[in-house]
Structures are given as C-alpha cells and as structure tokens.
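retry 2 of 3: previous attempt timed out while embedding magnesium ion. Reduced batch size to 1 and resubmitted. Inputs unchanged:
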Amino acid sequence: MMVKSSIDVPVLWEKAASRIVSNRYRKILVLGGTDRGKSTFCGYLSNMILESGREVAYVDADVGQKDIGPPATITLGYPGLLSGLDEISPFALYFVGSVSPEGHLLPMVVGTKRMVDASRVPFIVINTTGLIHQTGRVLKGYKIELIRPDVIVAIERSNELKSIIRQYRNHRIIRIEPSARAAPKDIDDRRKRREKAFARYFEKAAEVVLETDRLIFQRSLLFSGKRIDEGGGIYREITSEGVITVCEKSLMEHDHRRNLVAGFEKNLLCGLGNWKNYCIGLGIIIKIEFDSGRIRMITPVEKEKIKIIQPGDLYIEPSGKEIGRKSPGNL
Ligand SMILES: Nc1ncnc2c1ncn2[C@@H]1O[C@H](COP(=O)(O)OP(=O)(O)O)[C@@H](O)[C@H]1O
Ligand SMILES: [Mg+2]
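retry 2 succeeded.
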C-alpha cells in the first residue's frame, strides 16, 4: 500500500510491526485516543504485512473519522501495495447509525465482529475510535472480549490507556508512543472530513421510490405493527408495544414518545440491507408518503436490491452536510 513517504516511523513502530509480522499475530486491535496516529499506524502496519508477502484485511471501526468508506459505518477493505487507504472501496460494511459510538455501543461491537468474521484473509488490522475513557473504555473492553485479538497495539502519550490496559493485561499488548508529528484536527476539521466522505459516497446517488409494505424495517418500532385507520393523525399503527401515531406538530398530544411529528423522517440517514441482512449501502430518506405507502430516498444502491431499511440517528444532506442528530431508539 502507498504509505505517505513523508510519515515518521518511530523505532517502536518498526519493532511492533516486525514483531507482529514475524510472530504472525493475525488479529491486531489498535487502540489510542483521537489523533494519536491510529490510522497512520494501521496504514503502516498493513503495508508491512503486505511487504512480507501476505494479504491483509483492514477493519475500520472509527465511525467518525473513516479511512475506508462512509462515516456511520464499520467497513472491511483490502489494502493493496499500490493504493492509498482512501482509494479502497469497502468490500463489506455494517451500519452503525451514528458518527460517534455514544448511545450506539451494540452496533459498534456487533459491526466490528461482523466485519472481522467477513474477512477472507488471516491478517486483520482493526482500527477503532478515539473514545477511550468512560463509555469508550467500556466499549473497548467488550470489543476485546468479543474479538479476542492476538495482539492489542496501544498508542499512548501519557498513560491515557492505562485503565484499559490494566483490565486486559492478560492479553498480549504492545505499547507504542505516538509520533512527535501526530497533530490534532479540530472539531471543524473533523466535521468537514465527514462531510467530504459522505458527499463522495452519495456522489452518484439517485432518487428511488420504494413500497413500505415490501420492505423490512429494523431498529425501529415504526412499521413493526399493523396500520389502523381509526383515530386521527396522518398515520397510526398498532404494535405489540402500543399505538404509534404520526401527526402534524399542532395536533401533538403532549410529548408522548409514541407520537412522531410529521417530517421526522426528512433527511434521516439509513442503512440498506439485502435479504441476507447484509448491509449493501446507505440511503437518505426524502419523505415517507404514509397515504400511498411509499418511501422516497436518495441512494447509490440499486432499487431492486433493497429489502431492509435500518433508520439511523443522523440527519444529513446528500452534499454530506450534517443537519442534526436524533436520540437513539426513539422511532
Ligand atoms: N507517524 C506519523 N508521521 C507523520 N504524521 C503523523 C504520524 N502520526 C500521525 N501523524 C499525523 O497526525 C494526524 C493524526 O494522525 P491520525 O493517524 O489521523 O490519527 P488518528 O487516526 O489516531 O486520529 C494526521 O494529520 C497524521 O498525518
Ligand atoms: Mg483515524
């Protein structure tokens, strides 16, 4: 893989990579806070594995600052000797629904495991988010327990990973320092990078119209029940957890959580799946037409392949612009 020739390779990075390659540690989980150089190290390590004559899979679980594929997903790609990470198109993906793990721990661990299992080669470099304290510490712990990596590479400057390392010190851990050239990106930079990655993903997207009756909705209570015609509102449905109503804001009864305000779906980012429940891409809902039972969305995925819709918690425009977030699990 083309690693920027300009990168700085500290001695410990080189030692870590040659130890991993020569001992054939195959599942490599890379941990570190934001901007410590996780992506840079993962790229370097992938390259060292390739140069040793082996294939390598890259699982990118950093949902906010992706190396491969669109944000809000965990992806699996195969780096090659001649391509940069950002040129790799994902071989498989899993929709997390958010650009941060907070409130999304389950899809984070499920998705990472699914992508690791989908790899068809033994060497797997796993990159993670920079969230390492509190929720992040808990998430990393469960990831370690589920993935059972052969080695954990901990990139830390001043013991910030200590609590994770201590709790999992029965595992093989290689500690390395960040490069002196590791430089922070500010919140604006991060948002812009996500915007660009989304824009790139939706570049060739088109509008599709789908029939809600012929789709499976997952991760939402909405569309899990049966439509009822009595009562007011734009749409009513009876589910095993009660009635859901979609109505105009002015007609909202208090703030009952089973009431959805018309327009709640506009610009909502969704994961799209096939019958095997494999994620096949992303879509942005334009509108759900409850009268005619149709859903209009923007997606690069072929209409015929879409069988499953998984609403996420992020509102974006096809230009990549993030326009809002909703609290998880309120659909
Ligand atoms: N070894 C290195 N050599 C040169 N630049 C580096 C190195 N490590 C990190 N950087 C720079 O620091 C910034 C953050 O690194 P990155 O790998 O994106 O961190 P992370 O993935 O942990 O957020 C990037 O601009 C990257 O180019
Ligand atoms: Mg990164």
